Amino acid sequence: MPTPRTEVLVAGGDQLGECPVWDDRVGVLYRVDALSGAVLALDVGTGAEHRVDLGLHVGSVVLREDGDGLLLAAEDGFRALDVSTGESRLLAAVAAEDPGVLMNDGACDPAGRFVAGTMTREAESGRGALYRFDPPDAAVPVHTGVGVSNGLAWDAAGTTLFHIDTLLRRVDLLTYDVPTGTVGGRRSAFDLSGYPGLPDGMAIDAEGCLWVAFWRGGAVRRFTADGELLAEIAVPVLRTTSCCLGGPDLCDLYVTTARRSIRDAPALVEDLAGAVFRYRVAVPGLPAQRWRAAQPGTAIRSETGAAE
Predict the structure, then answer these.
(1) What does the pLDDT read at residue 267?
(2) Which residues of the chain have pLDDT under 70?
(3) What is the reported pLDDT for 99?
(4) What are the domain boundaries of the chain?
(5) What are the catalytic residues?
(6) CATH number of the domain at 7-280, please?
(7) What's the per-residue H, E or C state across the chain?
């Protein structure tokens, strides 16, 4: 694949830009600035950007099927956000007894459940986990013993969850049961320790191939599901964090970056650190899965609190 041209979509400033999500219904690219505690909505057509400051760490954001705002994986757990007013409310607490734990990357499964992982501020091995939000108010651990939980992507059948634990420097396969939202055994899909940087965020395309962003590696690479390298895009920022596929034809690769990490600020910061980049690629992505209140096996409460 020819090296695509680097286009600066947003000129920078994100302390820790993460979790880009393309809303194909309205042409808006959402992302979070984890360290600034902000959610940003960019109208790609006009260039107008709307920022919501929450005042707490935000790990990831997902769209809602009903279009009524967003859901977040934030410092204290799963939250709902009204983008227009900036009002945020906690839905389900995660690791409330351990202030050292932060929520990180997340996405919706094929049934519309929100699954998100955790890490500690010191990036300690084995202290993170994957959680499933069960409405109206439960956070259920589905996979434990994780270091820094990052990229999540489901295959076309929904029975395989690709997952990145950054500290392991590989992509793992978890068996996934869509009707129940439960996770089975973990095994390595492919090793990434031979590449510069650490695997971070991840996106899957229409051919089932995985785009992986490499933290401190200044690159996004495309792999087959068994690890064959197909393409590499050099990003002009070392702290490359995550990516998604979007745009009108889903062939725009959006890449987020950072000016610093959770633990420290680098001695040298590139001029474009914290920018959002866009690259044209040949294979389209898939529309982002949206959170749905009515999920398999989930009782939805009415306003009176009774199960329906």
Answers:
(1) 64
(2) 1-2, 267, 297-308
(3) 81
(4) 7-280
(5) 200
(6) 2.120.10.30
(7) CCCCCCEEEECCCCCEEEEEEEECCCCEEEEEECCCCEEEEEECCCCCEEEEECCCCEEEEEEECCCCCEEEEECCEEEEECCCCCCEEEEEECCCCCCCEEEEEEEECCCCCEEEEEEECCCCCCCEEEEEEECCCEEEEEEEEECCEEEEEECCCCCEEEEEEHHHCEEEEEEEECCCCEEEEEEEEEECCCCCCEEEEEEEECCCCEEEEEECCCEEEEECCCCCEEEEEECCCCEEEEEEEECCCCCEEEEEEECCCCCCCCCCCCCCCCCEEEEECCCCECCCCCECCCCCCCCCECCCCCEC
